[in-house]
Design brief:
Its cofactor is pyridoxal 5'-phosphate. This protein has about 375 residues and is α/β, with parallel strands linked by helices. About 40% of the residues lie in helices and about 15% in strands. Strands 2-8-7-6-5-3-4 form a seven-stranded mixed β-sheet, sandwiched between helices. Strands 9-10-12 form a three-stranded antiparallel β-sheet. The longest helix is centred in the last third of the chain and has 24 residues, at about 255-280.
């Protein structure tokens, strides 16, 4: 039985071209980019070529890209080091109640250090209110960290509007773009973004590889202490194969390719919704399917069947889906995103699954998912009826 992989919001399979690039660089480019001899210069050239490719993808300057180990390090650096560097200007931070744990846990840490954090609420479609944001902003606000796309329900935040509001405010603007990068149109200059986090493994690139965009106007100390790599902004010998692989993944995401994927993914969503409706499955979409939503994520409330049972039965059928964020689903903890949207006592909290699409998802995969989900629901409901 082949595996049907529908958890691309958690991670994606590495592409053939990225794997080939990694193998080549691991074998042939093993020099340290900080050295002055030939092998080091060769590594340095690959490092800077990769930096240029990635900078262009978000309309940044090359020297505004700092390579990291991934989204979590980038998020932690942006939040914690900004708070520490700007505490003389104020102690207030604004974020949302549905951020990834890589943002929420640093926020909790900073609260223990005396910072005030406002967690903006969301509506039942996973969207924040700009009026709530404006009301929360005050003279003590030094940082706003709001994700571009939510990883569990796919809601799209008003990044451009927030950046425009903050243009005349002292607060720096950080966005976790891990789920958006590779699909969304990201322009850090247009949207007045000061700091931005991404991760390579969400776009068929290597794991343990990401970057933090830092505007040249932003001055924060290195989060990782040691050597003077990355222009003294992130210590540690650069991962040259990882950077080359990341750049290869980015280069494959041309504008026509991104548009084609969006269209395909929206088609998959409609295929699932129409298929489950045709089979008379009792379900609802958590969030929205037609506005302010990323096409690659579909969160479904399968009424009356627990997340745990649904996941396990789909797994037995060879289908991989999630119960929410990959960082919490393994522990079967209730989704903080769904709690923020619907309240802690809503049955959706323990009866929802997340389906997410990627480069290698096919229409046949979706047909199989709909068929197996229908069989599982009917089988479980028949048992309950006895």
């Amino acid at each position: 039985m082949s595996e049907i992989y529908l958890d691309n919001a958690a991670t994606t399979p590495i592409s053939d071209e990225v794997l080939a690039e990694l193998n080549d660089k691991y074998k042939n480019v093993y020099g340290n980019a900080s050295t002055l001899y030939g092998l080091g210069r060769q590594a340095k050239q690959i490092l800077e070529d990769g930096r240029h490719t990635i900078a262009n993808s978000i309309n940044a300057e090359d020297n505004e890209i700092v390579f990291t180990s991934g989204g979590s390090e980038s998020d932690n650096t942006a939040v914690i080091k900004t708070a520490e560097a700007r505490k003389s200007l104020g102690n207030h931070i604004i974020t949302t109640a549905i951020e990834h744990e890589a943002i929420l846990k640093p926020m909790h840490y900073l609260e223990k250090k005396g910072f005030r954090v406002t967690y903006l609420p969301v509506d039942k479609e996973g969207n924040i209110s700009l009026n709530d944001f404006k009301a929360a902003l005050d003279d003590e606000t030094i940082l706003v960290s709001i994700m571009t796309v939510n990883n569990e329900v796919g809601s799209v935040m008003p990044i451009h509007e927030i950046g425009t509001i903050l243009k005349k405010h002292q607060a720096w603007f950080h966005t976790d773009a891990v789920q958006a990068y590779g699909l969304a149109d990201i322009d850090v200059k247009r949207d007045h973004i000061d700091l931005l986090s991404t991760s390579a493994h969400k776009i068929n690139g290597p794991k343990m590889m990401g970057f933090l965009y830092r505007s040249n106007e932003i001055k924060i100390p290195s989060y990782i202490m040691g050597g003077d790599q990355e222009d003294k902004r992130r210590a540690g010998t650069e991962n040259i194969p990882g950077i080359a692989g990341f750049a290869t993944a980015v280069a494959s995401l041309t504008e026509p390719e991104k548009l084609a994927r969006k269209k395909r993914f929206q088609g998959f969503k409609n295929q699932i919704i129409n298929g489950l409706n045709s089979n008379q499955i009792d379900f609802e979409v958590n969030g929205s399917n037609d506005k302010n939503i990323s096409p690659h994520v579909l969160n479904l409330w399968i009424k009356g069947i627990s997340t745990y049972i649904m996941q396990n039965n789909l797994d037995l059928a060879g289908i991989a889906v999630s119960g929410g964020s990959a960082c919490t689903a393994g522990s079967l903890e209730p989704s903080h995103v769904l709690i923020a949207m619907f309240g802690k006592d809503n049955p959706r909290i323990e009866e929802s699954i997340r389906v997410s699409f990627g480069r290698y998802t096919t229409k046949a995969d979706i047909d199989y998912f709909v068929d197996e989900t229908t069989k599982i629901v009917n089988r479980i409901k028949a048992r309950k009826a006895k």
